[in-house]
Amino acid sequence: MFKLTVIILRFNWSIFLLLLLILPKQKAISNVDSLKTLIADANGEKKANILHQLCIRYTYSNNDSAIYYGNIGLAFSRKQGLKTNESNILISLGNAYLDKGNFGKALEHYIEADKLFENLKDERGMIQAAMNMGLVFDEQNLFDKALNQYNIALDRSKASGNKKQYASCLNLLGGLYYSKDNHKALKYYEEALEINRFINDIPKIMDCLNNTAVIYQEHGNYTKALTNLNAYLSYSKQMDDQKGVVTGLHNIALVYKDKKDYPNAISYLDSCVFIGKQIKDFDDLRETYSTLYEIYKDENKLNKALECFELSAIAKDSLLSQTQGNQLIEMSTKYESDKKEAQNLVLNQQIELKNVESSRQQIAIALIGVILIIVGVVVFILNKQNKQKQRINLQLAEKNNIIEEQHKDITDSIQYSKRIQEAIMPSLHAWEEILPNSFVLYKPKDVLSGDFYWLEKSKDIIYFAACDCTGHGVPGAMVSVICSTALNRSVKEFGIKDTGKILDKVRELVLETFEKSESDVQDGMDISVCALNTKTLELKWSGANNPLWYLQNGELPEVTANKQPIGKVDNPTPFTTQTIQLNKNDIIYIFTDGYADQFGGPKGKKFKYKQLKELLIANSTKKMAEQKEILLNTFNTWKGNLEQVDDVCVIGVRV
Fold this sequence. Notes:
Blueprint: H1 6-22, H2 32-39, H3 44-58, H4 63-80, H5 83-100, H6 103-120, H7 123-139, H8 143-160, H9 163-177, H10 182-198, H11 202-218, H12 222-238, H13 242-258, H14 262-279, H15 282-298, H16 302-359, H17 361-424, H18 428-434, E1 438-443, E2 451-458, E3 461-469, H19 473-493, H20 499-514, E4 524-533, E5 538-544, E6 548-551, E7 558-559, E8 566-567, E9 578-581, E10 587-591, E11 599-600, E12 605-606, H21 609-618, H22 624-639, E13 648-654
Antiparallel strand pairs: 1-13, 2-3, 3-4, 4-5, 4-8, 5-9, 6-7, 6-10, 10-13, 11-12
Helix pairs in contact: 1-7, 1-9, 2-3, 3-4, 3-5, 4-5, 5-6, 5-7, 6-7, 7-8, 7-9, 8-9, 9-10, 10-11, 11-12, 12-13, 13-14, 13-15, 14-15, 15-16, 16-17, 17-19, 19-20
């Protein structure tokens, strides 16, 4: 099924608004190196704008560089008293911290920016700050706090009459409610659609049409879903957007597929294939053939299904080779053009020489002499350039060797760190001995991981947990070692058995470790920890931000966690211990947020917890090892060619 457009577009929209706030009169400079060269000669507001631009352009590609230039720009703006620049840079720094996963720092910068915007009476900036604060809470699944900020932004944009920002707030609210209350989400999307139609923002109209169609399809209202998708298709044709046309046709086909109206679905998919071949969009062709494969498989037309499966694979291969093919075509065309130009030059020289010889032989000799001199000069220059290039190439080769050695040292260090991190976690062999009827799906984003799983046994009680430390890669791994050690000490050294008190002690030990640093460390951990009595089947559970799901009588209820991490927070409260009486063959599921937050699928959207819950329920009768394989295959298929966004850890235990 096609998915919501707003979930991934909302953040791009905030960046777009940001760019409108920053340099309304200055042309954007796309080349980072060009920006750097301008800093030395710039002063005042111009210099602040250049530093801000560097912060923006490094965000989402190199967060550390974005934060570096943002802090320089912030300090410079404050020194020069440039309040508008200061507030805008605070927003950009917040975006860099948010993308890095440092929610505390992101929120701190957004709040400071909001205060400045309020003093400046900058309504648009205040709306943007409120939306971005909502995004911080939304990313942490703090529904009530995100809702509050989105409503503040909504009220501000309504009062200011900024219809474009008002429609964006409605879209954000629709995305927030999508997994909780589809009817409310639909209400917000339809209102956003009405406003975007009023201001004639066609791309946003198309997004709203697609979003409402998703909900109509999920509710089984295929007529309205098709009405909106046909309108989406009409706009795509009006804008002569062939890729948009293919998207509309494919989504309509998916509705017919849900209705089991396979002839209509196949007809629309055939149109997708026709246009996809014309525009050579191999990515859409791959998805189209994949959908045709599913339909033919359902109809038991195995030959057709196999043919479409093979065509999908061919389209995928063609997509990979398309870039190389285009480069070869460009090179061939340039070669033929240069060859023809050279032939014409020689022919013109011959004609000219003939005319000169027929008139005056002395002029011909002089001309040949000039040509020889020019050729000699050119040869001399080329020879000098060639030697210079050879010298530069040697220098580059030496630098590359140094870089390769440094890279090897870094890689070796990371691999060694990986072995250390693996040593703090239980081996899968030890896990299977203690919990034989279970699985652990553990898939780090990088070599090192911020996620880890934990296991300890004390007589009849088995303790196990899924843990998510701030960040991933090297920083996340360092925090995971501290948090894992704290868990072990709480159970082994201090002998604590109650899960809530275990988390209280872990928080105390982690903060004690961080306080030894001179820096203000904001890192911490989200966790879901269980204590299962193997004789009575009584489960004690506590959670920091991450919930517990348990399958009982075919249903999968959720036990909510305390809305606070293990780490430094304002007004910390003791962690709650929940007691659940399980029955034989019930299943416990605990997890981090990496699986549900993965982008992918036909439209590059998040997987979401709702879809994860449906997947677990559908396969709950299967063996635990089979469930793990299904989870892994579903994750990889959903992710496709996109980058894995976070570490993944999912644990299932059948009692």
